[in-house]
Amino acid sequence: MPQQLAPKEAAQFRQVIRSYEDKQYKRGLKTADLILKKNPKHGDTMAMKALILNSQSKTEEAFALAKEALTADMKSHICWHVYGLLYRSNKNFEEAIKAHKFALKLEPESAQIQRDLAILQIQMRDF
Questions:
Q1: How far apart, in whole angstroms, are the C-alpha atoms of residue 98 and residue 73?
Q2: Cα–Cα nearest to 72, from 107, 44, 100, 106
Q3: What percent of the chain has pLDDT over 70?
């Protein structure tokens, strides 16, 4: 089960996601660091920080942080989804599919994970 955050940190985590979606990476990193200062092993926050770092072309650092996030929280669908997104951005579609399938096992109702997996399967002609 993913680690629970206090209400203040949970709101900050939603802000990290919103910052990533709005491509405000500097703000997202700053907010993620605030959360990680209080909860240094929060896997979901580490995963989102890795996704932001990848968007800033810091791929190696992003993968290292994503692996650390998975180590901290193996049962988090967010960590696995981000791991799949990192692989997809590096055009390693087979590994991306594996990560997305695992994320889908953990959170079968997630339309976003289903959509990303479907896109990858179409890309690889794996119907």
A1: 17
A2: 44
A3: 98
Residue 5 pLDDT: 86
DSSP designation for 3: P
Domains of the chain, CATH where assigned: 7-123 (1.25.40.10)
pTM value is 0.91
Distance CA 52, CA 15 (A): 13
**pLDDT one-digit tens code per residue, 68-80:** 999 999 999 999 9
The whole-angstrom distance between residue 31's C-alpha and the CA centroid of its chain comes to: 15
Tell me the per-residue pLDDT of 78-112, one tens digit each, with 9 for 90 and over.
Answer: 999 999 999 999 999 999 999 999 999 999 999 99
Torsion, Cα 100 28 22 99, to 10 degrees, reads 0
DSSP secondary structure of 35-93: HHHH-TT-HHHHHHHHHHHHHTT-HHHHHHHHHHHHHH-TT-HHHHHHHHHHHHHTT-H
- Using the structure block, give the residue that is written with the tokens 């968007």: 55
